[in-house]
TrEMBL record:
It comes from the Bacteria. The gene is bcsA. SUPFAM superfamilies: Nucleotide-diphospho-sugar transferases (SSF53448), PilZ domain-like (SSF141371). The chain crosses the membrane at residues 20-40, 60-78, 98-119, 389-406, 412-434, 505-524, 536-557. It is found in: Cell inner membrane. This is Cellulose synthase catalytic subunit [UDP-forming]. Catalytic subunit of cellulose synthase. It polymerizes uridine 5'-diphosphate glucose to cellulose. Gene3D superfamilies: predicted glycosyltransferase like domains, Spore Coat Polysaccharide Biosynthesis Protein SpsA, Chain A. Residues 563-656 form the PilZ domain. It catalyses: [(1->4)-beta-D-glucosyl](n) + UDP-alpha-D-glucose = [(1->4)-beta-D-glucosyl](n+1) + UDP + H(+). Keywords: c-di-GMP, Cell inner membrane, Cell membrane, Cellulose biosynthesis, Glycosyltransferase, Membrane, Transferase, Transmembrane, Transmembrane helix.
Length: 721
């Protein structure tokens, strides 16, 4: 007689019981692993064993292995922090105590951010577009709002034309340019292309007030919002709108902010296209992780909002300068859902200068701190515990200013003052701290690898630390302090220069760390043998800080930006029309709103300024554009568009920046890179930063010596010059 097999429900129950028993055992062991006291050799043995296990686990694909790595990282970091709290805080004087607690609080902050980051990124949802109803007559009405204030028309024009090109029924799509600058040139352009130009008689509440004023005078069922430099692709609405029909409580669908121009870090450090930029981690991973917990944030652009949900929470939030995230928080408190699609469906311009970039980040940091004070996600009703943690981490992130400054100066406490900020031997610090650092880096490298390379976050934060520390501190005490500032886009940088105003904090920290190196070398000559290892440990830490700060200085060396229209690499079929000759089949190399470059099968020897034509294709439809030759050499020709009609401009947009695939195929393509290669790359950039800094100050000294005052002229002459 055959043995009876257990039923499916019974087998499922058995597997569930084993699953929960394994979790209970694992979580039960965690406190033991964290608090059990060990000798130095026992701690080293445990650390090596756990790290070997992590290396083995890292060889396996899948999310289960990622969760296991996160668990090991949390275990080792918790053990380190417990050791720091219980064994290393016995200080003999007030100076040691103050400095030690400063470092410990910075480490507690870093541990909380690490832990909350794991919660956010443990299981990215990976949402895909939902189909729309087959009957296009049932598709809802959408109002496209494009707020602008002081941006030039050349920046806004492509966005408006791209919005008009979106694939959506014409009778259900309306485009509004919300012009807070109240410019007649904008009104004339809007009339010419057939969109509505909207103004108001004040500028209260900046962008949020501009959008709210438009909400009171429009009636579309949904609202698509784009910053005036973010041009949508044709498929934007078809990709985003399907989820609203599936989820009646869905209030917002957000897509990534993709930038086709380099940000100041990428431009000044030469990393555009080779190193993930500062924002890719958020849009590539964190937002996708937030989506699992119904905590995706509204980011102010490239998003669709349900009008009824927006009106229910009083419109776009005006209480803080980060109106977008605050609006999403209000929607979540009201019981609405949000969604995130990690598919770039619009692209815009990054900030041109580092000073503009810093100003933008200051506004974000101040705004998130304002929300933390006035509408703290940990308090009040309407949020799940996971939503509270996701919002909390977003707000805590912008408080990194002081902790980062502490990390950049902490080793100086011992090297300069002889203060023991960690009351332990160098061997014990190695045994506890290195596993914490190694596991965090190993896990984050696996989780973030395509969207953020190791160590680069320290460069970004070090540049911004001093600048955001002050406004966030002020906002903690006075949330109403500070005003909204508009991020400049579309500007030019006519000459290369060193931004001493932005770099002065980094230079000051560099000077302090060089002083620390000097004191450390001095201590090596007389310190007793038992402390030699401690000196070397602090010297190594200081050396690492110098590498990071050198890269910060390099970022402040502004490169020229002379193009009014940024070039975008794109290869697609084209036809070159020369007078009296048959069309020549070719391919584009790159394009901008003002021209393009083409690769030809031969060299047609066209003179500079010659009038030609070039055809691009929208599916099977050919569009021909008049142009002049800017250069022609080696089978490549540069063309500048001349005298385009509005219809031709619209066709050009549809053939280029509105192509549905143009940005998505460039998204998240960075290869994973080993930590040693990343650190070597930053070290090379740092060396360039030191070279440029010294060259700048050498030139400044020479100019000073050659000034009229140095030549012995009268003081009045110096003042007048």
């Amino acid at each position: 007689m055959s043995e009876a097999r257990p039923s499916a429900p019974t087998a499922h129950a058995a597997r569930s019981a084993v699953h929960w028993a394994a979790w209970a055992l694992t979580l039960g062991m965690l406190p033991v692993l964290v608090v059990v006291p060990l000798t130095l050799h026992q701690q080293l043995t445990l650390s090596v064993a756990i790290f070997i296990a992590a290396l083995v686990i890292n060889r396996f694909a899948g999310r289960l292995a990622t969760l296991a790595l996160m668990f090991l990282s949390v275990t080792v970091s918790s053990r380190y922090l417990y050791w720091r709290l219980t064994d290393t805080m016995y200080m003999e004087n007030v100076l040691d105590l103050v400095l030690a607690w400063g470092l410990l609080l910075a480490e507690i902050y870093a541990f909380l951010v690490l832990l909350l980051g794991y919660v956010q990124t443990a299981w990215p949802l990976g949402r895909t577009p939902a189909p729309l109803p087959a009957d296009r007559a049932s598709w809802p009405t959408v109002d496209v709002l494009i707020p602008t204030y002081n941006e030039p028309l050349s920046v806004v024009r492509p966005t408006v034309l791209a919005a008009l090109a979106m694939d959506w029924p014409r009778d259900r799509l309306r485009v509004f340019v919300l012009d807070d600058g109240r410019r007649e040139t904008f009104r004339a352009f809007c009339d010419e292309v057939g969109v509505t130009h909207v103004t108001r008689d004040n500028n209260r509440h900046a962008k949020a007030g501009n959008i709210n004023a438009a909400l009171r005078n429009t009636d579309g069922e949904f609202i698509a919002i784009f910053d005036c430099d973010h041009a949508p692709v044709r498929s934007f609405l078809q990709v985003t709108m399907g989820w609203f029909g599936r989820a009646p409580r869905l209030a917002m669908v957000q897509t990534p902010h993709y930038f086709y121009s380099p940000d100041p870090f990428e431009k000044n450090l030469g990393t555009f296209g080779t190193v993930p930029n500062e924002g890719e981690l958020f849009y590539g991973l964190i937002q996708d992780g937030n989506d699992l917990w119904n905590a995706a944030f509204f980011c102010g652009s490239c998003a669709v909002l349900r009008r009824s949900a927006c009106e229910q929470v009083g419109g776009i939030a005006v209480e803080t300068v980060t109106e977008d995230a605050h609006t999403a928080l209000k929607m979540h408190r009201a019981g609405h859902e949000t969604a995130y699609l990690a598919i770039p469906q619009a692209a815009g311009l990054a900030t041109e200068s580092l000073s503009g970039h810093v100003g933008q980040r200051i506004r974000w940091a101040r705004g998130m701190t304002q929300i933390f004070r006035t509408d703290n996600p940990l308090l009040g009703r309407g949020l799940s515990w996971a939503q509270r943690l996701c919002y909390l981490n977003a707000m805590l992130h912008f408080l990194y200013g002081l902790p980062r400054l502490i990390y950049l100066t902490a080793p100086l406490a011992y090297l300069v003052f002889g203060a023991s900020v960690i009351h332990a031997s160098a061997a014990m610090i190695f045994a506890y701290a290195l596993p914490h650092i190694f596991h965090a880096n190993l896990t984050n490298s696996r989780v973030q690898g395509r969207f953020r390379y190791l160590f680069w976050n320290e460069v970004y934060e070090a540049v911004l630390a001093w600048h955001i520390f002050r406004p966030t501190l002020v906002a903690l005490f006075n949330p109403k302090a500070g005003a909204f500032n508009v991020t400049a886009k579309g500007g030019l940088i006519e000459r290369r220069y060193f931004d001493t105003q932005i770099a002065k904090a980094s230079i000051f920290l560099l000077a302090l760390n060089f002083i620390g190196i000097g004191f450390g070398l001095w201590r090596l000559t007389w310190v007793d043998a038992e402390r030699i290892a401690t000196v070397w440990l602090n010297l190594a830490w200081t050396g690492y800080n110098l590498v990071i700060l050198g890269a910060c200085v390099a970022a402040a060396n502004e490169s020229r930006q002379m193009r009014t229209a940024h070039r975008v690499a794109l290869q697609m079929p084209a036809l070159l029309h020369l007078p009296g000759r048959a069309p020549i089949a070719c391919r584009t190399f790159d394009f901008s709103t003002t021209g393009l470059a083409i690769d030809l099968p031969g060299d047609p020897h066209c003179a500079h300024g010659a009038a030609v034509g070039v055809s691009l294709f929208e599916g099977e439809t050919e569009h021909r554009f008049p142009a002049t030759v800017r250069f022609s050499r080696g089978g490549r020709m540069g063309l500048r568009f001349e005298g385009l009609t509005v219809a031709q401009e619209q066709a050009l947009v549809r053939c280029t920046i509105s192509r549905p695939d143009i940005w998505a195929e460039r998204w998240g393509r960075h290869p994973r890179v080993g930590a040693h290669r990343v650190l070597a790359h930053i070290a090379r950039i740092s060396a360039v930063g030191f070279r440029d800094m010294f060259a700048h100050y050498r030139q400044a000294i020479v100019r000073r010596l050659q000034s009229p005052a140095a030549a012995g002229r009268a003081p009045q002459s110096e003042e007048s010059s």
